[in-house]
Design brief:
alpha/beta, TIM Barrel, eight-stranded parallel barrel, two-stranded antiparallel sheet, globular
Amino acid sequence: MTGPAPAAGQAGSPDGQAGTPGGLRAAIASGRFVVTAEIGPPRDANPEAITRKARVLSGWVDAANVTDCQGAKVKLSSLAGCVLARAAGVEPVMQLTCRDRNRIALQSDLLGAAALGIPNVLLLTGDHPRFGDHPEAKPVFDLDGVQLTWTARTLRDGALISGQRLEHPPGWLIGTVENPFAPPASYRARRLAKKVAAGAEFVQTQYVFDVEKFAAWMAELGDLGITERCAVLAGIGPIRSLRVLDILRNEVPGIYVPDDVVRRLHGVPADQVADEGITLCVETIQQVTQIPGVRGVHLMAFGFERGVPDILERAGVGPRAGLAHAQEGP
Protein backbone atom coordinates (compact mmCIF):
# COMPACT_ATOMS: atom_id res chain seq x y z
CA MET A 1 0.00 0.00 0.00
CA THR A 2 1.13 3.52 -0.70
CA GLY A 3 0.79 6.85 1.07
CA PRO A 4 -2.12 9.31 0.99
CA ALA A 5 -3.43 10.30 -2.41
CA PRO A 6 -4.94 13.59 -3.53
CA ALA A 7 -8.61 13.74 -4.34
CA ALA A 8 -9.78 11.79 -7.36
CA GLY A 9 -9.71 13.75 -10.59
CA GLN A 10 -6.67 15.82 -9.57
CA ALA A 11 -4.16 13.91 -11.64
CA GLY A 12 -0.99 15.58 -12.75
CA SER A 13 -0.24 16.84 -16.23
CA PRO A 14 -1.17 14.34 -18.97
CA ASP A 15 2.33 14.84 -20.37
CA GLY A 16 3.73 13.11 -17.31
CA GLN A 17 1.32 10.17 -17.36
CA ALA A 18 1.59 6.89 -19.16
CA GLY A 19 -1.26 5.81 -21.41
CA THR A 20 -3.62 7.76 -23.65
CA PRO A 21 -6.87 9.29 -22.36
CA GLY A 22 -9.71 7.19 -23.75
CA GLY A 23 -13.07 7.70 -25.35
CA LEU A 24 -14.91 6.39 -22.29
CA ARG A 25 -13.50 9.22 -20.21
CA ALA A 26 -14.55 11.72 -22.87
CA ALA A 27 -18.02 10.20 -23.17
CA ILE A 28 -18.59 10.44 -19.42
CA ALA A 29 -17.25 13.99 -19.31
CA SER A 30 -19.56 15.03 -22.16
CA GLY A 31 -22.65 14.01 -20.23
CA ARG A 32 -24.05 11.85 -23.01
CA PHE A 33 -25.50 8.38 -22.48
CA VAL A 34 -22.65 5.85 -22.19
CA VAL A 35 -22.62 2.24 -23.34
CA THR A 36 -20.13 -0.40 -22.28
CA ALA A 37 -20.19 -4.15 -22.83
CA GLU A 38 -18.18 -7.23 -21.91
CA ILE A 39 -15.80 -9.48 -23.78
CA GLY A 40 -15.22 -12.86 -22.18
CA PRO A 41 -11.73 -14.22 -22.99
CA PRO A 42 -11.41 -17.80 -24.25
CA ARG A 43 -10.24 -20.81 -22.28
CA ASP A 44 -7.36 -21.24 -24.70
CA ALA A 45 -4.74 -19.11 -26.46
CA ASN A 46 -6.79 -18.25 -29.55
CA PRO A 47 -6.58 -14.48 -30.15
CA GLU A 48 -9.34 -14.62 -32.77
CA ALA A 49 -11.87 -15.34 -30.03
CA ILE A 50 -11.30 -11.80 -28.72
CA THR A 51 -10.97 -10.21 -32.14
CA ARG A 52 -14.31 -11.59 -33.38
CA LYS A 53 -16.22 -10.24 -30.42
CA ALA A 54 -14.50 -6.86 -30.54
CA ARG A 55 -15.32 -6.41 -34.23
CA VAL A 56 -19.01 -6.97 -33.52
CA LEU A 57 -18.99 -4.38 -30.73
CA SER A 58 -16.90 -1.81 -32.60
CA GLY A 59 -18.88 1.37 -33.16
CA TRP A 60 -21.67 0.33 -30.80
CA VAL A 61 -19.98 0.75 -27.42
CA ASP A 62 -17.78 3.38 -25.85
CA ALA A 63 -15.64 0.66 -24.29
CA ALA A 64 -15.70 -3.04 -23.50
CA ASN A 65 -14.52 -4.86 -20.38
CA VAL A 66 -12.23 -7.81 -20.80
CA THR A 67 -13.05 -9.97 -17.81
CA ASP A 68 -10.43 -11.31 -15.40
CA CYS A 69 -10.94 -15.08 -15.02
CA GLN A 70 -14.64 -14.45 -14.45
CA GLY A 71 -16.30 -16.87 -12.08
CA ALA A 72 -12.83 -17.91 -10.86
CA LYS A 73 -12.35 -19.97 -14.00
CA VAL A 74 -9.08 -20.02 -15.95
CA LYS A 75 -9.24 -17.84 -19.05
CA LEU A 76 -6.84 -15.87 -21.23
CA SER A 77 -5.60 -12.86 -19.24
CA SER A 78 -7.51 -9.61 -19.22
CA LEU A 79 -4.41 -7.60 -20.09
CA ALA A 80 -3.71 -9.70 -23.19
CA GLY A 81 -7.37 -9.51 -24.16
CA CYS A 82 -7.34 -5.72 -23.82
CA VAL A 83 -4.41 -5.43 -26.22
CA LEU A 84 -6.24 -7.64 -28.73
CA ALA A 85 -9.54 -5.78 -28.35
CA ARG A 86 -7.90 -2.41 -28.89
CA ALA A 87 -6.21 -3.69 -32.05
CA ALA A 88 -9.65 -4.80 -33.27
CA GLY A 89 -11.13 -1.33 -32.82
CA VAL A 90 -12.71 -1.38 -29.36
CA GLU A 91 -11.49 0.68 -26.44
CA PRO A 92 -10.77 -1.79 -23.61
CA VAL A 93 -11.44 -1.75 -19.90
CA MET A 94 -9.05 -4.02 -18.04
CA GLN A 95 -10.68 -5.87 -15.18
CA LEU A 96 -8.37 -6.62 -12.27
CA THR A 97 -9.37 -8.74 -9.28
CA CYS A 98 -7.75 -9.16 -5.88
CA ARG A 99 -8.46 -12.89 -5.81
CA ASP A 100 -5.25 -14.10 -7.45
CA ARG A 101 -2.66 -11.39 -6.70
CA ASN A 102 -1.01 -9.71 -3.76
CA ARG A 103 -0.46 -5.94 -3.70
CA ILE A 104 2.88 -6.24 -5.49
CA ALA A 105 1.39 -8.10 -8.45
CA LEU A 106 -1.69 -5.85 -8.55
CA GLN A 107 0.39 -2.68 -8.82
CA SER A 108 2.67 -4.30 -11.36
CA ASP A 109 -0.29 -5.21 -13.58
CA LEU A 110 -1.72 -1.70 -13.22
CA LEU A 111 1.56 -0.16 -14.37
CA GLY A 112 1.76 -2.66 -17.21
CA ALA A 113 -1.70 -1.66 -18.40
CA ALA A 114 -0.66 2.00 -18.45
CA ALA A 115 2.55 1.23 -20.32
CA LEU A 116 0.56 -0.64 -22.98
CA GLY A 117 -1.88 2.25 -23.38
CA ILE A 118 -4.91 0.65 -21.74
CA PRO A 119 -7.03 3.71 -20.87
CA ASN A 120 -9.47 2.21 -18.34
CA VAL A 121 -9.29 -0.18 -15.39
CA LEU A 122 -12.12 -1.82 -13.47
CA LEU A 123 -11.08 -2.92 -9.99
CA LEU A 124 -12.90 -5.51 -7.92
CA THR A 125 -12.40 -8.00 -5.14
CA GLY A 126 -13.31 -11.02 -7.30
CA ASP A 127 -15.13 -14.31 -6.88
CA HIS A 128 -13.71 -16.84 -4.40
CA PRO A 129 -11.86 -19.76 -6.05
CA ARG A 130 -14.34 -22.23 -4.52
CA PHE A 131 -16.87 -21.07 -7.14
CA GLY A 132 -14.56 -21.82 -10.07
CA ASP A 133 -12.83 -24.67 -11.85
CA HIS A 134 -9.95 -24.83 -9.34
CA PRO A 135 -11.79 -24.84 -6.00
CA GLU A 136 -8.62 -26.02 -4.27
CA ALA A 137 -6.70 -22.91 -5.41
CA LYS A 138 -5.36 -20.71 -2.63
CA PRO A 139 -7.17 -17.34 -2.54
CA VAL A 140 -5.02 -14.24 -2.08
CA PHE A 141 -7.27 -11.25 -1.30
CA ASP A 142 -4.30 -9.28 0.03
CA LEU A 143 -6.38 -6.18 -0.74
CA ASP A 144 -10.11 -5.80 -1.35
CA GLY A 145 -11.80 -3.77 -4.06
CA VAL A 146 -11.91 -0.56 -2.02
CA GLN A 147 -8.25 -0.80 -1.05
CA LEU A 148 -7.22 -1.58 -4.63
CA THR A 149 -9.16 1.45 -5.87
CA TRP A 150 -7.39 3.64 -3.31
CA THR A 151 -4.03 2.18 -4.32
CA ALA A 152 -4.70 2.81 -8.02
CA ARG A 153 -5.67 6.41 -7.33
CA THR A 154 -2.45 6.88 -5.39
CA LEU A 155 -0.42 5.54 -8.29
CA ARG A 156 -2.17 7.89 -10.70
CA ASP A 157 -2.96 11.08 -8.81
CA GLY A 158 -0.33 10.88 -6.09
CA ALA A 159 2.35 9.55 -8.46
CA LEU A 160 3.56 7.39 -5.60
CA ILE A 161 4.49 3.73 -5.28
CA SER A 162 5.89 2.27 -2.05
CA GLY A 163 6.31 5.86 -0.85
CA GLN A 164 8.50 6.81 -3.83
CA ARG A 165 7.68 9.21 -6.65
CA LEU A 166 6.76 7.87 -10.07
CA GLU A 167 8.48 9.59 -12.97
CA HIS A 168 5.75 8.42 -15.35
CA PRO A 169 2.50 7.85 -13.44
CA PRO A 170 -0.40 6.06 -15.14
CA GLY A 171 -3.36 7.91 -16.58
CA TRP A 172 -6.23 5.43 -16.77
CA LEU A 173 -9.84 6.03 -15.77
CA ILE A 174 -10.73 4.11 -12.61
CA GLY A 175 -13.90 2.06 -12.39
CA THR A 176 -15.55 -0.22 -9.86
CA VAL A 177 -18.56 -2.52 -9.51
CA GLU A 178 -21.53 -2.64 -7.15
CA ASN A 179 -24.55 -4.84 -6.53
CA PRO A 180 -27.63 -2.77 -5.62
CA PHE A 181 -29.57 -5.91 -4.68
CA ALA A 182 -27.24 -7.74 -2.30
CA PRO A 183 -28.28 -7.77 1.37
CA PRO A 184 -28.33 -5.74 3.46
CA ALA A 185 -29.99 -3.31 1.07
CA SER A 186 -29.44 -0.37 3.42
CA TYR A 187 -25.68 -0.80 3.07
CA ARG A 188 -25.30 -0.84 -0.71
CA ALA A 189 -25.32 2.90 -1.41
CA ARG A 190 -22.86 3.62 1.42
CA ARG A 191 -20.59 0.85 0.17
CA LEU A 192 -20.37 2.50 -3.23
CA ALA A 193 -19.74 5.82 -1.49
CA LYS A 194 -16.61 4.28 0.06
CA LYS A 195 -15.38 3.20 -3.36
CA VAL A 196 -16.01 6.66 -4.82
CA ALA A 197 -14.16 8.24 -1.90
CA ALA A 198 -11.30 5.85 -2.68
CA GLY A 199 -11.15 7.07 -6.27
CA ALA A 200 -13.75 5.30 -8.44
CA GLU A 201 -14.98 7.48 -11.31
CA PHE A 202 -17.48 5.09 -12.88
CA VAL A 203 -19.37 2.05 -11.62
CA GLN A 204 -20.91 -0.87 -13.46
CA THR A 205 -23.67 -2.60 -11.52
CA GLN A 206 -24.76 -6.21 -11.24
CA TYR A 207 -27.66 -7.27 -13.49
CA VAL A 208 -30.75 -5.09 -13.10
CA PHE A 209 -33.95 -7.13 -13.39
CA ASP A 210 -35.93 -5.21 -10.76
CA VAL A 211 -36.11 -1.65 -12.07
CA GLU A 212 -38.14 -0.39 -9.11
CA LYS A 213 -35.56 -1.49 -6.55
CA PHE A 214 -32.77 -0.16 -8.73
CA ALA A 215 -34.49 3.23 -8.93
CA ALA A 216 -34.73 3.33 -5.13
CA TRP A 217 -30.99 2.62 -4.89
CA MET A 218 -30.27 5.38 -7.39
CA ALA A 219 -32.30 7.79 -5.27
CA GLU A 220 -30.11 6.92 -2.27
CA LEU A 221 -27.00 7.56 -4.35
CA GLY A 222 -28.40 10.93 -5.34
CA ASP A 223 -29.06 11.84 -1.73
CA LEU A 224 -25.42 11.01 -0.91
CA GLY A 225 -24.15 13.08 -3.83
CA ILE A 226 -22.60 10.00 -5.47
CA THR A 227 -24.20 10.47 -8.89
CA GLU A 228 -22.46 13.84 -9.20
CA ARG A 229 -19.04 12.29 -8.60
CA CYS A 230 -19.32 8.88 -10.25
CA ALA A 231 -20.95 7.77 -13.52
CA VAL A 232 -23.42 4.96 -12.79
CA LEU A 233 -23.81 2.41 -15.60
CA ALA A 234 -26.69 -0.01 -15.05
CA GLY A 235 -25.78 -3.63 -15.71
CA ILE A 236 -28.26 -5.22 -18.11
CA GLY A 237 -28.30 -8.44 -20.12
CA PRO A 238 -30.64 -10.81 -21.96
CA ILE A 239 -31.81 -14.11 -20.44
CA ARG A 240 -31.97 -16.31 -23.54
CA SER A 241 -33.01 -19.66 -22.07
CA LEU A 242 -34.67 -21.18 -19.04
CA ARG A 243 -31.37 -22.89 -18.27
CA VAL A 244 -29.64 -19.50 -18.05
CA LEU A 245 -32.50 -18.24 -15.89
CA ASP A 246 -31.97 -21.16 -13.53
CA ILE A 247 -28.22 -20.53 -13.37
CA LEU A 248 -28.68 -16.85 -12.61
CA ARG A 249 -31.18 -17.57 -9.86
CA ASN A 250 -29.46 -20.49 -8.19
CA GLU A 251 -25.79 -20.72 -9.13
CA VAL A 252 -24.45 -17.17 -9.47
CA PRO A 253 -24.02 -15.39 -6.14
CA GLY A 254 -25.56 -11.94 -5.78
CA ILE A 255 -28.01 -11.91 -8.70
CA TYR A 256 -31.65 -11.09 -7.95
CA VAL A 257 -34.29 -12.14 -10.48
CA PRO A 258 -37.80 -11.14 -9.32
CA ASP A 259 -40.75 -13.49 -9.61
CA ASP A 260 -42.46 -11.48 -12.34
CA VAL A 261 -39.46 -12.00 -14.63
CA VAL A 262 -39.50 -15.73 -13.88
CA ARG A 263 -43.22 -15.96 -14.65
CA ARG A 264 -42.81 -13.98 -17.86
CA LEU A 265 -40.09 -16.24 -19.26
CA HIS A 266 -41.88 -19.41 -18.19
CA GLY A 267 -45.08 -18.08 -19.72
CA VAL A 268 -43.96 -18.28 -23.35
CA PRO A 269 -43.35 -21.36 -25.50
CA ALA A 270 -39.85 -22.82 -25.19
CA ASP A 271 -38.88 -21.70 -28.68
CA GLN A 272 -39.77 -18.09 -27.82
CA VAL A 273 -37.84 -17.74 -24.57
CA ALA A 274 -34.77 -16.28 -26.27
CA ASP A 275 -36.80 -13.60 -28.08
CA GLU A 276 -38.74 -12.78 -24.92
CA GLY A 277 -35.51 -12.45 -22.95
CA ILE A 278 -34.13 -10.04 -25.52
CA THR A 279 -37.36 -8.01 -25.47
CA LEU A 280 -37.16 -7.84 -21.68
CA CYS A 281 -33.57 -6.62 -21.97
CA VAL A 282 -34.59 -3.90 -24.42
CA GLU A 283 -37.42 -2.76 -22.16
CA THR A 284 -35.11 -2.64 -19.15
CA ILE A 285 -32.65 -0.42 -21.00
CA GLN A 286 -35.48 1.92 -21.95
CA GLN A 287 -36.71 2.05 -18.36
CA VAL A 288 -33.35 2.73 -16.69
CA THR A 289 -32.63 5.57 -19.11
CA GLN A 290 -35.49 7.42 -17.42
CA ILE A 291 -34.06 7.08 -13.91
CA PRO A 292 -32.35 10.25 -12.63
CA GLY A 293 -28.63 9.82 -12.20
CA VAL A 294 -28.16 6.87 -14.56
CA ARG A 295 -25.38 7.79 -16.96
CA GLY A 296 -25.47 4.73 -19.18
CA VAL A 297 -25.72 0.96 -19.40
CA HIS A 298 -23.25 -1.89 -19.13
CA LEU A 299 -24.51 -4.62 -21.45
CA MET A 300 -23.62 -8.18 -20.44
CA ALA A 301 -24.40 -10.60 -23.27
CA PHE A 302 -21.99 -13.46 -22.70
CA GLY A 303 -21.66 -15.58 -25.82
CA PHE A 304 -24.18 -13.35 -27.58
CA GLU A 305 -22.05 -10.36 -28.52
CA ARG A 306 -23.51 -10.54 -32.03
CA GLY A 307 -26.87 -9.52 -30.55
CA VAL A 308 -25.61 -6.33 -28.89
CA PRO A 309 -26.13 -4.01 -31.90
CA ASP A 310 -29.74 -5.17 -32.34
CA ILE A 311 -30.50 -4.79 -28.63
CA LEU A 312 -29.12 -1.26 -28.56
CA GLU A 313 -30.90 -0.31 -31.77
CA ARG A 314 -34.24 -1.58 -30.49
CA ALA A 315 -33.74 0.22 -27.19
CA GLY A 316 -33.26 3.50 -29.01
CA VAL A 317 -29.67 3.92 -27.87
CA GLY A 318 -28.13 3.40 -31.29
CA PRO A 319 -24.49 3.42 -32.38
CA ARG A 320 -21.82 5.60 -30.83
CA ALA A 321 -21.36 8.91 -32.64
CA GLY A 322 -17.96 9.21 -34.29
CA LEU A 323 -17.07 5.54 -33.92
CA ALA A 324 -16.70 3.51 -37.09
CA HIS A 325 -18.55 0.21 -37.35
CA ALA A 326 -16.69 -2.95 -38.14
CA GLN A 327 -18.26 -4.90 -40.97
CA GLU A 328 -17.21 -8.35 -39.83
CA GLY A 329 -19.31 -10.56 -37.60
CA PRO A 330 -18.35 -13.48 -35.41
